[in-house]
Amino acid sequence: MKEHQGDLCSRYIKIFIVVSCYWVVSIATVFVNKTLLSSDSVSLDAPLFITWFQCVVSFTICFILSRTGGIPGVFNFPKGSPWNLDVVKKVIPLSIMFTLMIATNNMCLKYVGVAFYYIGRSLTTVFNVLLSWLLLRQTTSLRCVLCCAFIIFGFYLGVDQENLLGSFSLLGTIYGVIGSLMLSLYSIFTKKVLPSVNQEIWLLSYYNNAYSIILFLPLILINGEVGVLLKYTNFDSTFFWVQMVIGGVCGFAIGYVTSLQIKVTSPLTHNISGTAKACAQTVLATQWYNETKNYLWWSSNLIVLCSSAMYARFKQIEMEVNSRKPLSEEKKSLV
Questions:
Q1: What is the DSSP letter of 325?
Q2: Which of 35, 103, 60, 31 is nearest to 240 (CA)?
């Protein structure tokens, strides 16, 4: 009994440490990206270039880990090359979604405040339900649909209150909605692509970052950032490159701690942890940037957060019930 209690205590301590690391890394990543994208200390109006550089840093770390085999005593990095033609053909469609997802997320963060960032990107769950029906012909229970309706209402209320407070950005909100759509598509098609990389999340991250480095180049050109980069005068600043590298390391770290949290807990716990983290992130942002929000603005956040958590819980109950029923492979959810 004592040994069992000791093992249980050790497991809880491990879960607490992992979840705490996820919170710290995730919140730090958002604040670091906001600083890079819109602060006077960087003053580089080239958000896609900044995102591209973060992919370069993530790819470099993955490349080193692939050569060393991982971190001894921590984890083993799977073997694989992103330049295999067969792998490229299978993964590149997902990498396009990945590129658009991180690009629109950072574009959203450039134009909206950290406090409003969660609301601006809160429609991922709604798109999951909609795309599951359109692409998979998978129906959703009424209570989950009602949760989505409340999320939409919370999103609308948040946009309305942000507009009344004078800090609303239509462009940033549009990027947030597109980012939510891309994240939903990415989540759905990831399961289709994972068998092509032997179910290895690390390999998929390695390949996505490798291909994104190339895919970002035409986007940077189309967005008119080449002229901005040519005129930028702080490329010789050590402080600038330190900030850029920190942003890249944070981008890599968030992928690792997210996978680790799901591994030591569960997808449901990850969703709940992410929802609670978003709430803490919003409170921290209002304090950090000295922003004053009204009651209805806070209500919109609470509606979105609670509705998202309830959706995750209802979905888990449905999955537990469905797991007891024999289903054909094509009918299983990809979300």
A1: S
A2: 35
Inter-residue contact 47 to 110 (CB < 8 Å): yes
| pLDDT, tens digit, 9 for 90 and up, residues 141-200 | 899 899 999 999 999 999 999 999 888 899 999 999 998 898 888 877 887 888 888 878
Q: Indicate if the pLDDT at residue 335 is higher than 50.
A: no
Number of neighbours of residue 308 by Cβ within 10 angstroms: 25
Residues 6+ apart with CB under 8 A from 91: 82, 193, 196, 197, 204, 207, 208, 211
Q: How far apart are CA 159 and CA 116, in angstroms?
A: 9
Q: Beta strands of the chain (E only): which ranges?
A: 70-71, 75-76
DSSP string, 55-76: HHHHHHHHHHHHHHTEETTTEE
Residue 168 Cα distances to 104, 116, 227, 280, 304, angstroms? 17, 9, 28, 21, 18
- Helices and strands (H, E) in the chain, number of each type: 12, 2
Indicate the burial class of 239 (C-beta count within 10 angstroms; 0-12, 13-18, 19 or more): exposed
- On whether the pTM is more than 0.70, the answer is yes
